[in-house]
Amino acid sequence: xxxxxxxxxxxxxxxxxxxxxxxxxxxxxxxxxxxxxxxxxxxxxxxxxxxxxxxxxxxxxxxxxxxxxxxxxxxxxxxxxxxxxxxxxxxxxxxxxxxxxxxxxxxxxxxxxxxxxxxxxxxxxxxxxxxxxxxxxxxxxxxxxxxxxxxxxxxxxxxxxxxxxxxxxxxxxxxxxxxxxxxxxxxxxxxxxxxxxxxxxxxxxxxxxxxxxxxxxxxxxxxxxx
Length: 226
Known about the structure:
Elements: H1 19-30, H2 39-50, H3 79-88, E1 116-118, E2 120-121, E3 124-125, E4 127-129, E5 132-133, E6 138-140, E7 143-149, E8 154-155, E9 160-166, E10 171-172, E11 177-183, E12 188-189, E13 194-195, H4 199-205, E14 207-208, E15 214-216, H5 218-225
Parallel strand pairs: 1-6, 4-7, 5-7, 6-8, 7-9, 8-10, 9-11, 10-12, 11-13, 11-15
Antiparallel strand pairs: 2-3, 14-15
Helix pairs in contact: 1-2
């Protein structure tokens, strides 16, 4: 930015369109053999050149709690970025305050039973440390650290989950050890599976990023079983 060498303006990817005009531009672009059909490279410039387009400065209207020092925004377009943005929420005082009643997050909320923690014996204690656990989850004699469990996840006994983002309705089998992972929706993690301790083995079985985060999908698990 002119006069502010330490700052730059960037598109946040949030757009509001008049539907009819957007459809017109999309059809025009589809019929243009010279277009690369890229939203940012072709569609937005066409709208700017051929109609009314305005920008809004995010920081000027972003509501934030007293604990948040700056307007919060994160890019989650890669596995690493998605992982980091979610794990940030497990901080004692996260940059994004989900408990801020002045800025509620209005989204679909599934009606579920409360989260449940069971078993209380040495080596088999249901517990979560610096973690977020959604409704419908059962943490059964297992330990979570810096982990997010989305709706309906069941973590079976003797499992250990550390720095993990677990999407809805995942089943984590007995004795599994997962570290620095993103597990896709509905995946069943086999009993005893270990991820996050052997980089070479992880890269052979799953999608492992340069930062060491493993993405685990149902197809990847199916290949292990064949």
